[in-house]
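Worked example

This section walks through a single chain of length 341. The input is the sequence exactly as stored; nothing has been trimmed or padded.
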Amino acid sequence: MKGSGTAFCPQPSEQAEEYASLCGMVIGRSAAMQQVANMVRQVALYPDTTVLLQGESGTGKDVVARAIHQLSSRAAYQFVDINCAAIPETLLETELFGVEAGAFTDAKARRDGYVLRADGGTLFLDEIGSMPLVLQAKLLRFLETRSFRRVGSTREMHVDLRVISATNVDLQSAVAHRAFRDDLFYRLKVITISLPALRERPEDIAPLVEHFLRLHSLEGEPPLRISLEAMDLLTRYHWPGNVRELRSVIQRGQILCDENLILPEHLPEGLCRASMDSSQRLEELRAQLHLPPGGIDLPSFLGSIEHVFIQEALERCHGNQVQAAALLHISRDQLRYRLAR
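Given that input, the structure is written out below as tokens.
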């Protein structure tokens, strides 16, 4: 079969053991993700601490939240998640705190909210930046007292839980524009964990692919594999949808492939085109380089090219040297040496 001789196959590794130690959730060999894993372990030891997760859509904020819950002493209780952006503003308060019978026309029976269901466990507030300002004030009071009232009730209720929130927007900027309460922002960010975009940690693509190949392998059939050509396309793609997009690509490949081998033709057309366009541009650039008749100051020329790539990498990673070094496939010490030079 075409491409069947060379394939990227999942192999048992220390990375897999590291992954298992974090409840089968947090994966990554990059320095950035190892730092996230260490923070997850530390935060899990303090079951009352409020945590704020920041990162682009698809970076795995919900996965990290579940890992914190599963590693904590609250694991025996429920992990309850609510997407603040998916529920209309008029219903969000009743979904969160519950409602008493007769509180309004459609409230025919008393109903518990997410807060009470999470008692003893963890309440995960996803897309917290979408919460309306009026409800933000009530959430702040709840965080301070761990007490609340159902909508339409005068009875004060108390719960014991951890609150983890997540956002893919800049809450600091939202505070500056008065779209988010500053007192709530500081109350949520007792511990902040920032999840890097997948394009900023290309060395994590391989272990993530290993995991998704295992995840989508069907029981009783040969393990799912991916050709080296297809794997090369994955490593050169910029992943705007982050880890969520990568998982979808592997799942699509599993459905379309023959003999459990994912080939380039089983990948989305846009992904293949974007990956090849990037590679082709570099190849075209190299083809245009010729030694001038009078020679060239090679160290100076190479240094100027290096300067351009280092500057762009640092800008793309917002000054984070670890992530910039990963983009350039060099160590942080090598990057620091080049910066000093």
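What to look for: Confidence is low (pLDDT under 50) at residues 1-5, 12-21.
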